């Protein structure tokens, strides 16, 4: 793994892992930054949450309502398996993608994985008015974010080839950090 500040060359995945994947918590900016990154790298952009919705014809909250989180996770694993086999892609994932070991394995082995590591306080500011994230529709969403961060941060790190620390900086500054790190990790 390399950090964005001091990225070291790690070219072991270059030839067999063309998909660039963003992982991180809800509100880390995977969708926002991923779309712009794809545009700049002349790659296609796909968001796995959007792909699940396109395949089912309903929103993420509806899938959680009807099939529960387990049903959503099964669909997510299928989509991740499909998308990570594609080339010329920037893939923004859902925040819980790292929970399943099978997802972690395909991400780590097939892709260049970038973890957008944003502190819980900032995640809370960005997601507090959004009703589209079923896991945050609880009495204490801020506490939930903190608990999920504690649980998931080691999992994100375990799949990441690059960790990009974020804070209150703009999406543009996040993008610049990612591009810098990628220069050292793969050919685009
Ligand atoms: N660097 C940033 N600075 C300020 N706001 C940001 C930044 N990145 C994203 N945002 C805003 O935060 C919100 C959440 O961002 P986004 O939807 O991209 O997160 P995500 O990582 O895709 O979350 P999820 O896992 O729920 O899909 C959006 O309103 C977006 O505009
Ligand atoms: O963090 C999570 O577990 C989730 C994040 C979203 O991207 C969606 O995938 C869904 O709301 C679950
Ligand atoms: Mg997203």
H-E string: EEHEHHEHEHHEH
Shape: globular
Radius of gyration: 16 Å
Q: Report, as a whole number of angstroms, the end-to-end distance.
A: 18 Å
Oligomerization state: single chain
The tally of helices reads 7
Q: Could you describe the largest sheet, including whether it forms a barrel?
A: 6 strands, parallel
> pLDDT below 50 for ≥5 consecutive residues: which ranges?
5-17
Secondary structure: helix percent: 40-55%
Taking all residues together, what is the mean pLDDT? Answer: 91
Structural class: alpha/beta
The number of strands is 6
CATH structural fold name? Rossmann fold
Going by CATH, the homologous superfamily would be: P-loop containing nucleotide triphosphate hydrolases
Count of domain modules: 1
Question: What is the CATH C-level name?
Answer: Alpha Beta
Estimate what percentage of residues fall within beta strands: 5-15%
Ligands: adenosine-5'-triphosphate, (3R,4S,5R)-3,4,5-trihydroxycyclohex-1-ENE-1-carboxylic acid, magnesium ion
What is the name of the CATH architecture? 3-Layer(aba) Sandwich
Which terms would index this structure?
188 residues; alpha/beta; Rossmann fold; six-stranded parallel sheet; 6 strands; globular; binds adenosine-5'-triphosphate; binds (3R,4S,5R)-3,4,5-trihydroxycyclohex-1-ENE-1-carboxylic acid; EC 2.7.1.71; Shikimate kinase; magnesium
């Amino acid at each position: 793994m390399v950090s964005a500040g001091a990225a070291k060359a790690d070219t072991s995945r270059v030839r067999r892992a063309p998909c660039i994947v963003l992982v991180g918590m809800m509100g880390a900016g995977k969708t926002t930054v991923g779309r712009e990154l794809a545009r700049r790298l002349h790659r296609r952009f796909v968001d796995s949450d959007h792909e699940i919705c396109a395949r089912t014809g309903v929103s993420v909250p509806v899938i959680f309502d009807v099939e529960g989180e387990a049903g959503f996770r099964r669909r997510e694993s299928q989509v991740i398996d499909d998308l990570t086999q594609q080339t010329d892609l920037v893939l923004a994932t859902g925040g819980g993608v790292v929970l399943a070991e099978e997802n972690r394995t395909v991400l780590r082995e097939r892709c260049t994985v970038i973890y957008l590591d944003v502190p819980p306080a900032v995640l809370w500011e960005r997601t507090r008015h959004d009703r589209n994230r079923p896991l945050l529709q609880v009495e204490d969403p801020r506490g939930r974010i903190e608990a999920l961060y504690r649980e998931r941060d080691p999992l994100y790190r375990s799949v990441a080839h690059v960790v990009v620390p974020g804070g209150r900086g703009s999406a543009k500054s996040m993008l610049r950090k990612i591009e810098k790190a990628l220069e050292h990790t793969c050919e685009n």
